[in-house]
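Box S1 | Example of a co-folding query
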Amino acid sequence: MKRRKFLNNTVKASSLFLANQLYPFSNIPINEFPFKKSDFGKNFKWGVATASYQIEGAWNVDGKGPSIWDTFTHNTKKIKDKSNGDVACDFYNNYASDIALVKALNFDVFRFSFSWSRILPTGIGDINQKGLDFYHKVIDRCLELDLEPWPTIYHWDLPQHLQDKGGWANRDIINWFGEFTNIVTREYGDKVKNWMVMNEAASFCAAGYLGGLHAPGKISYKKFYDAVHHSNMCNGVSGRIIRSEVANANVGTTISCSYVEPKNQKKKHVRAAQKIDAFLNRLYLDPLVGRGYPTDAGKLFEKISDRVPSEDFQKLKFDFDFMGVQNYSRFIARSFIVPPVIHAFHVPPKKRGVPPDQITEMGWEVSPDGFYKILKQLGTYPEIKRMIVTENGAAFKDTVNNGKIHDKQRISFFQNYLSNLLKAKQEGVKIDGYFIWTLMDNFEWAEGYRPRFGIVYVDFKTQKRMIKDSGLWFQELLGE
Ligand code: BGC
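Box S1 (continued) | Returned holo structure for beta-D-glucopyranose
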């Protein structure tokens, strides 16, 4: 027993040594800390979040089947820089050193997602052993470095074969998703205790089935309504499967959420803000906590609710141990006479005169106050037991100077957002963790590789990783 402990400690120590050799601590002064790690509490989790399609590459290797993102990037012209995730960060081959990097930066948690078609090439039926093995390696690498692996079962890369059957618009997905959940929980449940069902149903339903901007590129109200309801059902059904299959599981899911303010206090704009809030936030959260669809917010929501078989409402509800909260910006609502969708739209920051340094490469306004307000808003839900911020971060233009990336804007983004999280927490909102988006620059969906969200810079030609100043800032904050 003693010998085993000694060996384990030796492996851990040498991995850390390796990580520190690869990524030495910089001697640049990083001394702006408006708070200390300990202010957030002893049990507060600090993590980095990633997603399979955005980092793994190896799109057709070792038996993996195609996903909707392989098809979408290869067959449409909808990716801004015409790129794809065929190689991405080549995490499939670099996972050991990338995970060592997470440890070297002093985080506790590595959040990643399973590529469904790597494990089940056609989404159902035959299992690909090499796919299962890959995630064993990822999980084992985390455990040997004393990092907690937090998988998300689904982060947008549906197997193409299931899309051919209608994807999220087909009610059968509730069974397909259940089968996949059963497989991964049985396979990894002994080693993994923290689980998230899915990543932001709001994004893949709206961008994938209504706006046509993301895979599978559909533009259809009917498909959108169905995708929304089926993804909500999968959250409830899959949450129950995790709880029954994994002893002592900490079960969560993630929702994208943004604070919505009216342009001014005119009644019509206030109403527009309520509608956008329902469209972005409540449509996905309320059914999960047992409140049903937000029918008070307008016809669209009534239509979605009317289509739902009454026996579904009970299944939608699940008492998650935590809600994964993902926030990037805020929305400013104004009423709009012409549909689409809800007679309301968002006034972009440029049009409101927001200074350019407060707008990210995604065109999103930097709004730490919006972050605080959405945390407070979610804090009014007694059904939410605990929250973990499972994604927050920003894309800014990065320049490499002699191997250094002085990303001051990103550091100040994190300082301000974290200060606001702390304020909400000190006022009683139950927030138990913060995961940054994201570890390293990666494939940013329809935007391609231009927006860089990482705290680690990736040179995509050489796959070289370089820690940005923001990464060093976290290393020092979390190393206290
Ligand atoms: C998604 C990530 C994405 C990030 C920035 C989140 O909604 O979960 O996959 O990269 O936003 O756009």
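Residues 1-30 have pLDDT under 50 and may be disordered. The CA atoms of residues 349 and 363 lie 8 Å apart.
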